[in-house]
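User: Predict the full complex structure for these chains.
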Amino acid sequence: MTLLTALARLLIFPGLLFAVPAAWFFLWVERKSIALMQGRVGPPFMQPFWDFIKLLGKSTPPRPGITGLLMRAWPLIAVSAAAGAVGLLPVLPSSGGFEGDLILLLALLELPSICIIAAGFSSRSIFGEIGSAREAALSVSYNIVFLLAIVSIAASQHTFRLEALAAAPNSPLHWVGVLAILVCLPAKLHINPFSLPNAEQEIYAGPMTEYAGPELAMWELSHGLEWVAGTGLVATLVAPHIAIPLGAAWLAACIFVALCVVIVLLLSALAAATARLAIDSSVRFYWQCTLIFAILAVSSAILMRIRS
Amino acid sequence: MNLLNRLMCTARRRSPWLFHMNSGSCNGCDIEIVAALSPRYDAEQLGVRLEGSPRHADILCVTGPVTRKAVGAVKTVYNQVLGPKAVIAIGSCPATTNVFIDSRTLDGPLDKHLPVDVFVPGCPPRPDAIIAGVAKAAQILAERESKPPEAVVTLVAETTEETDK
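Assistant: Here is the predicted structure of the two-chain assembly.
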């Protein structure tokens, strides 16, 4: 991957220039589909964009010293990490990549949630601290399953290169891994039934309680980019392997967006159908119910390696 | 610059986020605020979101006749909402203290303590009147810069149209 293609992927497609409007679009799809499922009309098409612009124009309370600096820094780190994660996705055929970019992608996907934990504690609000503690507990439980699922997919293909994984033939093991990733996505995106960290009304707004104006706008954007990165990761793994000529890159992009929207609709249906679980039930769900599948996937991947 | 200002005005008009504050209300108006967000009235069409934290909100919705105990809380929450902001007094209680007038436990009405932008009278007001009030407050918000709010008092009459069939 040359510097030029890397910059193009980070800044144009599937990076910032594509990812930011896509983030707003996915946030709208989520809100609109939940509204339709509840028999409402829902927000207008441009709503996440207007929310973002309005928040940029609001004032922030004066926060002197290191606290203010940290509270401005966390959302920016979260946004750049999520945008970087989107930029790494192998959407276009033969778009480059490097050995081990899967590990970088996992690290970048994890950064926003670490930023949220740190943000809640650095805001010094008691509700922020409760939200951060919940986010930390949730993150420890779903990440085991998430990482095991991805490791099993990678181990079965003998590679940590995203493009090779995306091009790999779909085996049953591949689908078990994708299913495990899908189970983890609601917790990663903080939607029902795992909307514990930012439990609206229950603990005010969780780690975001003290954030206002442009900082909150950045958090909203990073949440949208997490949607793009999370659904995009699944979309690249399940994308059908038809031979797309290099000239028809738009076709690959269209398939990617369509698959992402389908996954967003799936997750929204889950969010609309369920209520918020308590933290102990959520942690138990991941440790007791889904860990078995992840261990199954990993062990079968190792068995496959020994046999081959 | 002018274009940016117009964009910001549109954004403020189309994305009013509410924070709901109860200052000793009987819960009648609170139920109606929730009803305004329900499938029948669906205030989210206007971009309305009920926020958990006053830091996120643009519009402070106050219900209740402001009891002595609640005065401090009302002022604190008003200061926690960041500018530009607007205040809606929902129900007859924050407007006039209603049937509790002259009670020794009250320190109302609301405009004694905060600059109120929109009054939505009624005991309780209908959800469509509340939505009309929010839309009016969002319009006021769009026209107001970050300068400190002056008391623009607007009255939203109860909608007479019968929406129930």
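The radius of gyration of chain B is 15 Å.
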